[in-house]
Each structure stands twice: as structure tokens, then as C-alpha cells.
Design brief:
heterodimer; A: alpha/beta; 5-stranded mixed β-sheet; 15 strands; globular; B: mainly alpha; flat
């Protein structure tokens, strides 16, 4: 028989083991409290040039470790920091930065799980295009439940982020919809990023939309820029089919193929049949009435058009559902005579073997480029559990300064770039060559120019590359040939002219207000149901069946309060602070 | 006196139990990690069910969040989709449960009849393999096979002069066939193992006796093999009933297209889409709890019926 103390031992051993295992999994809050110093003990926090009396640089913040958790895709951000870059950041600021990406099927799943775990590091970052993005209600809930630190007082003493407090700096949505929401009473709990320094500033000359194979357009004697209606697109597709063109593997081409990144609904290809943008479907008519697409005849017109394309085999049958790998493979093989949607900065088309098509006119007027006065993208917040949150704010401010941006966008002076007479960085040729020949190896150098965007998480804002570094894109000054193809396409498309005549808008997307609507959850589900029903209708046997499907989705929308939501939009649009993009 | 008898019986029972445990102490010691595992990973997480009745707040945690009563249950049953979701879930899981039940049994019977050991081993191994493929791969393969125009099925149909442009994945008409076919293809080999094991346990003397009486192979299967594995079939069936409201998330989530969504949307996909992706943990837990409770009730009921009818039961 075992004695009493033997039993105690037997039970204790597994318990200790369990505790040990649990301990090893860690509860790393990211903050190194031992090294964190109170603000009063720290030296000058500014991002001014010069050094302090203690011998530390003027950019010095605090000798501490800072950990950030990224709720964004691993394709967009990288957590590996180059040791030399990391050391330089430490030397300049005292901060030992560590970035971790939370991997999840959908970034929003990771964000929700991370917030629910209540175990957050010094700062978190997340996607946030505008206040209508699905992440917004989640972070708003977290802010209302006092998960985040109020950043407004911390921003006051900063060099770059204090601009956010100026009346004319932020776009409407960022100011009143995302950051300084009326219910926050002057506080703000997250920072919206990637705001341009100047209104209407474009960082890149984007020419997005459908693209057509140049050899096919040439063979047919068609100038792709003249295809500005879906009727002309249909005629062109018929000519392509009749032309018996082949792809790289000698197989028949598909006249209209899907989006380069995978099958989905593509508004830009069917602009003159789209009521509002394809992710909103809400727009004002000529009399000023706000309508949803389901209340207009355009839904049926589009169904009729797509059914015609499908029936005559002018569009790929899996146009709306194809997975990304097959869609991209088709574009690379030249199987799609027309790629539904692509853009001019893609590597595969540097030689311009695909040309931009259109653009297709809008449903109620000729095409006109629309430029946001300013927009935002991604965001970050400091959990209330973070010690000395002012250090994180100062780190962000340093990374958003020219000196900080130079470090995370261009790397190390001498190793990765030199400075010209004006003080602008000139990327080293060997770095650019490495980026072209071995992008993965180049990425290890650890800065945004070579594809490692750790600094953008906190520092990517107040953007004006031309003013800061004398070039629109990394490496333009040294190797203009890298972006030459993209810029030639932009020229061909008439980017400059279109930009000159562009409509600059500052406002909210209609669906930004769905969270404020009483039956928002139900209406959102009904909108999703409508989107699915529209695609179902494309594949319906005939127009009667399609009409039935759409009628049912419309009834669902009406029953869940579509009309009341449109009334709310009308009220919002009338207020200059909540102008809606309609 | 009765009052004294009961405690003494209990005491003697308890001491007998302890004596038994001490006698087989090493076996019980081996059981300990298993118990710890289940307590940590199965029983402690079960307390999360409380979320179904809580208004979850990030900063307050599960216990600190305020009570929500039966709000989420009411919301679910008031949702216009709830009827469709329950109907779809029941149809799909019943198809898998009832129509799918004979397939692994038939396969096991077929394998049992194959006398060539090498051929049987190879055939068995091939039939198990799909079990190890993830649903992402299986649905990817299905999509390629059924793709319009260049999919294998369409090409075959076209070869014989039929319409080769059918988009099977988008047409609701073909949804159940695709769902059921892919489910059987993936699971039949693996599910047949347990029946093969049960068949292997049948006493060979019974077959000998049957042969002596002049029974054919079909008669042997009908009168010896099937009755012998009947308890196994019943137990597995009762256990499967517990999942009647879980029709298989991965498969349905991946097979769902705008064309078949009104048939393919089930409770599991709804919980993930509306509950978890929308951060509504309480709501998701309430729907999940409902699925679990209905499953439990069905298992208990089926167990009772089975015990009465065939004397085979889980407990």
C-alpha cells in the first residue's frame, strides 16, 4: 500500500509538470517592465535633430522592449526584422522592437480572438480602410469597453501625429467616423494610418481595371481605350471569339477572364451597369433620391448582359468563383484575352503585353477619375494594459518622421543607400539588382524598399514621398527602369489627363453607417444575401427565374429596413461632417 | 437497523474500491495523464457554455460580463434564416447518417470476401487514403472535376454528345449529389475499418456450421456476419446521432457557392460567419449549445430505444 506522502508525491509530480508546461507557454505582455523607465527619468523625447546632454541622440525615447501584435496578413507584413536595422532603431530610440503576426484564416478572426484573450502586447495593428470596414465595429466595441488607451493627450506633444489634431488635416471619415467620433468627446482610441500630407496626393500612378492582350487588340485593329461601354465590350468579345486566338499552350483563349487575383464580381468591367460601387450598390439618382441597386432596373439589365455573355461563351463560366491560383495562371498563360481586373504595377506585365481597356463609362455619365481628398488604411491602438503608452506614441512619431521613414523605407546609410547633394536617398544599385534577382534574399535586408514593411505599421502616415525623398517610388532616382513599364502603361491610359480632370471627394462610404442603424445586423445579412442572389441570377436558366431570385432578395432587403437605412443616409449626407460618397 | 446498514454497505463498497485501485495502482497511474488531459481540454472549456447567457465584454471576461438571459436564443429563432438553417442542417446530416450508413458496412463486407490478401491490403489502403486529405484538397479536386467546359465530367459528357457546359457547383440541382458523393468518397474507407474489425471477431465455427448446412456466401453474410456486427452498427449509429445538428463545417463551407447557398448554409457555417467572424461570441455559443443539447437528447433517446428493442446500448 502506498503511504499518504507517496500519494501526495504522485499527485504533485503531474501538477508540477502541468504548471511547468503552462509556464513555458508564457504570458508575455511584451512590456519589459524592468527596463521600462518612468517618463520623468527619460531624456529628451523629441524627434528634433541634435543630441541631448546625456549623450543620447535627440530621438531617444526609452531603454525598453516594445512588442506589437499584427492582425493583418502575412503577405502584407513581415515580422522578421533585420538585426542591423533593429540595432540602429535601438541606437536611435532605445527601443528594442519586436513584431509578431497573428496568423488566422481571416485577419478579423485573429483580431477578435486576440481581443477576447485579453492578453495584448504594447500595441496592436489591424486593417481599417474606412469606418465601413468589418474590423471597425470590433475595435469600436473594444474602445467602448476601455480596452485601449486614449491617444489624444499623447498626440499633442508629437511632431507628426499632432497634425491629426489640426482641423484640416484628416479626411472626414478618418476624423469623425474612425478617430474622433462624437461619442468619444475629444478622445481617440486608435490611429488611422496612411494619410497623405497633401489633399488629393497620389503615391502611385495607378491604372487599374480590365486589360486586354496587346497582340489580340493589334490583330483586331482595336484601340482598347475606345472600349468605353459594355455594349462595345460585348462586340469586342465576339470578335475575339471569332478570331480563334490561342494562349501560350496553344489552347483557345477565353474572351473575358476573371480578376487577376481570383473570381469575383468586378465593377470596373461593367461600370455602366453598376449602381454605385460593387461593394456598396447605393447611389443617388438624377433627382437626388438615394437608391439601392435592387430598386433600379440595372440589376436585371446586368443579369441579362451576363447571361448573354455566358450563353455565347464570351466570359469564363467561373468568372465569379474561380480560385486565385487558376485565375493568375490563366493571366500568365495569356488564356484570358481580357483580364477582368489588373493594374499597371504588376511584375508580369512590365513589357506591356497586356494593355488597359476602357475605362468603361459610369451608369449615368462618362468615366471620370475619382480621387479621395485623403484616405486611410490600417490602424493601431495601445491596450490599456501597456505601461508608459507615451513611449509607443513617441516611437510611432519617430517612425512617421523623415528620419524614421528613411530607416524603415531605405535601410541603412552606406549599406543600402547614399545621400545625394540635396540629402535625398539614392538606393544602391546592388540592392535593387538583388531585389530583382532574388526578392526573398533582398527582403532580409529589412526595409520597405525591398519588401519588409515592419515600419509602416506605426510610421506609415503623413505620406509625401516626393517632398521627403525626391522620388515617387523607392529606387526611381537610381533605377527608373524598374517602374518604367508601369509608368508607360499609365501614360498610355492617360493618367495625367485623367488626374487633371479628376473629381476629388471627401466623405463616407454608404455602408459606413450600417453600425448606427437599428437593424444593422439584419440588413447587413440581407445585403450579403442580395450579393449572392445576384450571382445566382446570372446562372439562372432564364430571365423569369432570375427575376424571381432578385425579387426575393429585394423583398428581404425591404423587410429588414432598407428604406429606413436610405433615409438615415439622406440625413447623414445633409450634414457636412458626414457627407456620403453617393 | 436500516439507518446503520446503508453506511456500512457504502463504506465497504468504498474500501473495496480503494483496495482495487491500490491493487492496480500502476494501471490507474497510467490513466492519470488521460484524466488530466480531459479535465483541462474538455471539461474546463465546457464552462464556456455560460457565454450563451452573457453579454460578452472584452474587458470583463466571461464571468464579469453581464447576464443576457435567453436573448440569443430568441434572436436565433426570430431570424428569418433560422428555419432554413435547421432544415438544411437536418437534411444534410440525415443524408450522411441514414443514407451513408450502409456504405462502409457494404465495403467492409466486400473486403471480407476478397480472398487474395495482397489485393485486399492494397484495395483497403487506397480506400483509406482520402480520409487523410483535407477538405480543402477534396473540394479543390471536386471543383476541377466538375468545372464547366474543361472539367473531366463535362468532357466525358461532351464526348458522348451531351451538354458539356454545365456548371455543377453553381446549380442547386446537383448540390446534394456532390455533397453526398464527396462525403462518401472521403470517409467510406476509413469508416469501414471498425466494421472489418467487428467481422474479424465473428466466430469462424459459425461459418463452418453454416457451410455444413449448405448455406451460400450470401446466406452466411445475411444470417451470420450482419447479425454478429449488429451491436457495433447500433452503437456507432447512436453515437452519430449526437452530431445530427452538425452536418460538417469544412466540407459545406468550401462547397458553398452563391448558386447553392440556400441549400448549403447550415448551422455550423452560420455560427462561424455570423457568430465568430462578427465577434458575437454569446450568439455563436447559444447556437452551438442548442446543437449540442439536441444531439444529447437524441443520443439518450436512441440509446433507450435500442436497449429496449435489441438489448444493445451505450450504458
Amino acid at each position: 500500500m502506498l503511504r499518504k506522502n507517496t500519494w501526495v508525491r504522485l499527485l504533485t509530480i503531474p501538477l508540477i509538470l502541468t504548471l511547468l508546461l503552462a509556464g513555458c507557454t508564457g504570458n508575455d505582455k511584451g512590456t519589459d517592465n524592468k527596463t521600462a523607465q518612468p517618463e520623468s527619468n527619460q531624456t529628451d523625447q523629441g524627434t528634433n535633430n541634435g543630441s541631448t546632454d546625456s549623450g543620447k541622440p535627440a530621438t531617444w525615447i526609452a531603454d525598453r522592449k516594445v512588442k506589437g501584435l499584427v492582425f493583418m496578413g502575412t503577405d502584407d507584413y513581415t515580422e522578421d526584422m533585420n538585426p542591423e536595422i533593429k540595432a540602429k532603431l535601438k541606437e536611435l530610440t532605445g527601443i528594442d522592437l519586436e513584431v509578431e503576426i497573428m496568423v488566422a484564416d481571416h485577419s478579423i478572426d485573429g483580431l477578435i480572438a486576440g481581443l477576447a484573450s485579453n492578453d495584448l502586447p504594447d500595441f496592436i495593428t489591424f486593417y481599417l480602410n474606412n469606418s465601413g470596414r468589418p474590423e471597425m465595429p470590433v475595435i469600436l466595441k473594444a474602445a467602448r469597453e476601455e480596452m485601449f488607451t486614449d491617444l489624444a493627450p499623447l498626440m499633442k506633444d508629437t511632431k507628426v501625429y499632432s497634425k491629426y489634431l489640426q482641423d484640416d488635416y484628416l479626411p472626414l471619415d478618418t476624423r469623425y467616423g474612425v478617430m474622433f467620433r462624437p461619442e468619444f468627446n475629444g478622445s481617440t482610441y486608435f490611429i488611422h494610418m496612411n494619410v497623405a500630407r497633401q489633399g488629393g496626393y497620389a503615391t502611385r500612378k495607378y491604372a487599374g481595371g480590365p486589360y486586354i492582350r496587346k497582340d489580340i487588340a493589334d490583330a483586331l485593329g482595336v484601340d482598347p481605350r475606345t472600349i468605353n461601354t459594355t455594349e462595345k465590350l460585348y462586340e469586342l468579345a465576339k470578335k475575339i471569339k471569332a478570331g480563334n486566338f490561342k494562349d501560350n499552350n496553344g489552347k483557345d483563349v477565353v474572351p473575358i477572364g476573371p480578376n487577376y487575383w481570383g473570381g469575383q464580381e468586378i465593377g470596373v468591367l461593367f461600370n455602366d451597369l453598376e449602381w454605385g460601387s460593387d461593394d456598396q450598390r447605393i447611389k443617388k439618382d438624377a433627382s437626388g433620391t438615394i437608391l439601392h441597386e435592387s430598386q433600379t432596373p440595372y440589376a436585371l439589365k446586368k443579369v441579362e448582359y451576363i447571361q448573354k455573355l455566358l450563353k455565347e461563351k464570351l466570359i469564363h463560366p467561373e468568372f465569379f468563383t474561380m480560385d486565385e491560383s487558376r485565375a493568375t495562371e490563366g493571366a500568365l498563360n495569356g488564356t484570358w484575352a481580357i483580364i477582368g481586373n489588373a493594374h499597371n504595377y504588376q511584375e508580369f506585365n512590365r513589357d506591356m503585353h497586356y494593355l488597359p481597356l476602357g475605362p468603361i463609362d459610369f451608369v449615368d455619365r462618362p468615366y471620370q477619375m475619382q480621387v479621395d481628398f485623403k484616405s486611410g488604411y490600417s490602424g493601431w491602438a495601445i491596450p490599456t494594459t501597456t505601461k508608459n503608452p507615451e513611449d509607443i506614441m513617441k516611437l510611432a512619431d519617430f517612425l512617421a518622421s523623415r528620419e524614421g521613414k528613411l530607416l524603415w523605407q531605405y535601410g541603412l546609410e552606406g549599406r543600402d543607400y547614399t545621400l545625394d547633394a540635396k540629402g535625398n536617398p539614392l538606393a544602391k544599385k546592388e540592392v535593387i539588382d538583388l531585389k530583382v534577382s532574388n526578392p526573398e534574399e533582398a527582403k532580409k535586408l529589412g526595409f520597405a524598399g525591398v519588401g519588409n514593411s515592419w515600419g509602416e505599421l506605426l510610421g506609415g502616415t503623413d505620406t509625401d514621398r516626393m517632398a521627403d525623398f525626391g522620388e515617387m517610388e523607392y529606387g526611381d532616382a537610381v533605377a527608373p527602369e524598374v517602374n518604367a513599364g508601369a509608368l508607360k502603361i499609365a501614360d498610355y491610359w492617360g493618367w495625367e489627363e485623367k488626374r487633371k480632370n479628376a473629381k476629388i471627394v471627401d466623405g463616407y462610404t454608404p455602408l459606413s453607417f450600417i453600425g448606427e442603424f437599428e437593424h444593422g445586423t439584419e440588413l447587413k445579412a440581407a445585403f450579403e444575401n442580395y450579393d449572392d442572389s445576384l450571382i445566382r441570377a446570372y446562372y439562372a436558366k432564364n430571365m423569369d427565374e432570375a427575376k424571381k431570385i432578385l425579387d426575393s432578395a429585394s423583398k428581404q432587403l425591404e423587410a429588414t429596413g432598407l428604406q429606413q437605412f436610405l433615409e438615415l443616409l439622406k440625413t447623414k449626407d445633409a450634414d457636412p461632417k458626414t457627407h456620403v460618397k453617393l | 437497523m436500516e439507518t446503520h446498514v446503508t453506511p456500512s454497505v457504502n463504506t465497504s463498497k468504498r474500501s473495496r474500491l480503494w483496495r482495487n485501485i491500490l491493487l492496480h495502482k500502476y494501471l490507474y497511474l497510467m490513466l492519470l495523464p488521460c484524466l488530466v488531459f480531459f479535465i483541462i481540454f474538455s471539461y474546463i472549456p465546457m464552462t464556456g457554455i455560460i457565454l450563451a447567457f452573457k453579454e460578452y465584454k472584452f474587458n470583463a471576461g466571461i464571468l464579469g460580463s453581464p447576464w443576457a438571459g435567453f436573448k440569443y436564443f430568441e434572436r436565433f429563432f426570430n431570424d428569418y434564416q433560422s428555419g432554413m438553417l435547421i432544415k438544411n442542417t437536418l437534411i444534410i446530416s440525415c443524408m450522411k447518417l441514414f443514407i451513408g450508413l450502409p456504405f462502409p458496412i457494404l465495403l467492409a463486407l466486400m473486403f471480407n470476401e476478397v480472398k487474395n490478401r495482397y489485393f485486399r491490403n492494397i484495395a483497403q489502403s487506397i480506400s483509406y487514403l482520402p480520409h487523410f486529405l483535407s477538405w480543402v484538397v477534396v473540394v479543390g479536386l471536386t471543383q476541377r472535376l466538375l468545372a464547366p467546359d474543361n472539367g473531366l465530367l463535362n468532357q466525358i459528357v461532351g464526348f458522348f454528345g451531351g451538354d458539356s457546359s454545365v456548371f455543377y457547383m453553381m446549380e442547386p440541382h446537383y448540390f446534394y449529389q456532390i455533397m453526398f458523393g464527396s462525403h462518401i468518397w472521403k470517409s467510406v474507407g476509413w469508416d469501414s475499418i471498425i466494421y472489418l474489425a467487428a467481422i474479424a471477431g465473428v466466430n469462424p465455427d459459425m461459418y463452418e456450421a453454416a457451410k455444413m448446412d449448405g448455406a451460400s456466401r450470401t446466406r452466411e453474410i445475411w444470417h451470420i456476419t450482419l447479425p454478429s456486427i449488429q451491436p457495433t452498427i447500433l452503437i456507432l449509429f447512436i453515437l452519430s446521432l449526437g452530431n445530427i445538428l452538425s452536418a460538417g463545417f469544412d466540407q459545406l463551407y468550401l462547397l458553398r457557392t452563391p448558386g447553392n447557398m440556400h441549400l448549403a448554409e447550415i448551422l455550423d457555417t452560420y455560427v462561424i460567419r455570423v457568430g465568430l467572424q462578427g465577434g458575437q461570441y454569446g450568439y455563436a455559443t447559444a447556437v452551438g449549445l442548442m446543437q449540442g443539447l439536441i444531439g444529447l437528447i437524441l443520443v439518450v433517446a436512441a440509446n433507450r430505444i435500442s436497449k429496449k428493442v435489441s438489448d444493445t446500448s451505450l450504458w
